[in-house]
């Protein structure tokens, strides 16, 4: 039950992070606005980050765990952003931040750490 709760909470937090990224992209006009497909893929990528944090059973310290997974997903999204003629760095930085925050809220605030 603890594991299911962790996966659901982390996935929801990832969706929220995706919504925040999408809303932020509306206010930062760099070139053309994002298409609907790009907006949906952005939200789903961060939701996948949350899901990955939730299902991961790595026994790392929660800060390292969240930031490493966030960095991995940030690199993936950063490379994708380069193909859309956008900057590589914002997704990378946001990946670190979102990974940290998802893990912080999931592990410390809601007390759903990695199950034994």
Q: What's the arrangement of secondary structure elements?
A:
Blueprint lengths: L1 H26 L8 H20 L6 H22 L5 H21 L7
Helix pairs in contact: 1-2, 1-4, 2-3, 2-4, 3-4
Q: What's the number of structural domains?
A: 1
Number of strands: 0
Output mean pLDDT: 87
SSE class: mainly alpha
Give the number of helices: 4
Beta-strand content:
under 5%
Helix content: over 70%
**Uncertain ranges:** none
In whole angstroms, how far apart are the ends?
Answer: 12 Å
Radius of gyration: 14 Å
Could you state the order of secondary-structure elements as H and E? HHHH
Task: Report what the structure shows.
- The protein has 116 residues and is mainly α.
- It has one domain.
- The chain has four helices and no strands.
- The chain has helices at 2-27, 36-55, 62-83, 89-109.
- Helix 1 (2-27) packs antiparallel against helix 2 (36-55) and helix 2 (36-55) packs antiparallel against helix 3.
- The chain starts with a helix and ends in a 7-residue tail after the last helix.
TL;DR?
The chain has helices at residues 2-27, 36-55, 62-83, 89-109. The protein is an all-alpha fold and 116 residues long.
Please describe the structure with a list of short key phrases separated by commas or semicolons.
0% strand, 116 residues, single chain
């Amino acid at each position: 039950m603890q594991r299911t709760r962790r996966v659901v909470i982390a996935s929801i937090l990832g969706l929220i992070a995706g919504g925040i990224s999408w809303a932020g992209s509306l206010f930062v006009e760099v070139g053309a606005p994002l298409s609907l497909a790009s907006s949906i893929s952005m939200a789903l990528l961060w939701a996948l980050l949350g899901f990955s944090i939730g299902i991961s059973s790595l026994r790392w310290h929660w800060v390292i765990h969240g930031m490493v997974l966030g960095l991995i997903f940030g690199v993936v999204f950063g490379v994708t952003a380069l193909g859309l003629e956008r900057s590589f760095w914002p997704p990378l930085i946001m990946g670190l931040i979102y990974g940290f925050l998802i893990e912080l809220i999931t592990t410390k605030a809601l007390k759903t750490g990695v199950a034994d």
